[in-house]
Amino acid sequence: MRIDGYTRTCGVIGNPVEHTMSPAIHNTLAKVLSKNLVYVPFHVPEGSLSAAVAGAFSLNLLGLNVTVPYKSEVIPFLESLDPLAAQIGAVNTLVRTAKGFRGYNTDMPGLYRAMCEDGVQIEGENVLVLGAGGVARAVAMLLAQKGASQVILMNRTLEKAGRIAEEVNRMAGRSLASAMSLAEYGSLPEGYSFLAIQATNVGMYPRVDAAVVEDAAFYRKIHTGYDLVFNPARTKFMSLVSQGGGRAYNGLKMLLYQGIIAYELWTGARVGGDLAAEAFREMEKAMTYRKEES
Q1: How would you class 128 by CB atoms within 10 Å of its CB: exposed for 0-12, middle for 13-18, buried for 19 or more?
Q2: CA–CA separation, 154 vs 131, rounded Å?
Q3: Could you tell me if 87 and 246 are in contact, meaning their C-beta atoms sit under 8 angstroms apart?
Q4: Pick from 89, 85, 88: which is nearest to 105 by CA?
Q5: β pairing state of 150-155 and 177-181
Q6: pLDDT of 289 strictly over 70
Q7: What is the pLDDT of residues 234-257, one digit of tens each?
């Protein structure tokens, strides 16, 4: 690509950030759409987040993605917040405005678009959410918004899951969510077949031989498993879901669509299905290169 005085810069800030797949998404979109834009990762050390956001604005960056551990920490340094990001309490996309950056959450819309493409519905479903961190909280909010029948948050620490369940119920205005200790998975109600969303980092590369629950009986209650981990492409959770007779998906399409929505916010472009598929292929290539180098 040509880089000149008119080139706009976007990127991702995090710590660490070297593993990111996002350049494969955004630089592919820019190339195909003939946008004079380049996307690069920025490693922001602990304690430097405020300076990084201010510096990005001063350097006229068009926008930023935000990854761990800064998705909530970045909020005080923003000019404004989109209502969805405020509700979730996490930001992964910064969009330049006249006075500063506006924060958005494209993770949950990205997950929803990915699930729709994979034919996984939420409305009327009985859903298990494994985990009780920030991602699990955002997933539970999405499930409430999209009409899930019930949501059971399963976590090692019951109190954390309980706090999220209470918050979701207040937001939903109904008794939708409940909490359960992971150790009590055997007491899940009989007669239900669940959609399960794996929202922890268990099974993520390089610790690929673990799942939060490993009992085959648990997975026979799951008709569809969605693991938000994308590296490795097939996690142990996914394998156990398949062995139990269910459909299994990873989080790579969520990553794709959160990036596409961010790109659309930055540029005003609209990304169609063919271009999304091309960006997805570039992400898969990037994962292959990384494995060959490691």
Answers
A1: buried
A2: 6
A3: no
A4: 85
A5: parallel
A6: no
A7: 999 999 999 999 999 999 999 999
pLDDT band with cut points at 50, 70 and 90 for residue 182: very high
The DSSP-derived string for 141-172 is HHHHHTT-SEEEEEESSHHHHHHHHHHHHHHH
Mean pLDDT to the nearest integer, 70-99: 96
Please write the tens of the pLDDT for every residue from 2-13.
899 999 999 999
Q: Is the pLDDT of residue 281 over 90?
A: yes
pTM of the model: 0.92
Q: Are strands 101-104 and 93-96 parallel, antiparallel or unpaired?
A: antiparallel
Q: How far apart, in whole angstroms, are the C-alpha atoms of residue 245 and residue 16? A: 36
Are the beta carbons of 142 and 112 closer than 8 angstroms?
yes
71 noted as active-site residue:
yes
pLDDT at site 292: 54
The catalytic position among 71, 221, 236, 253 is 71
Give the C-alpha separation, 103 to 91, whole Å.
Answer: 6
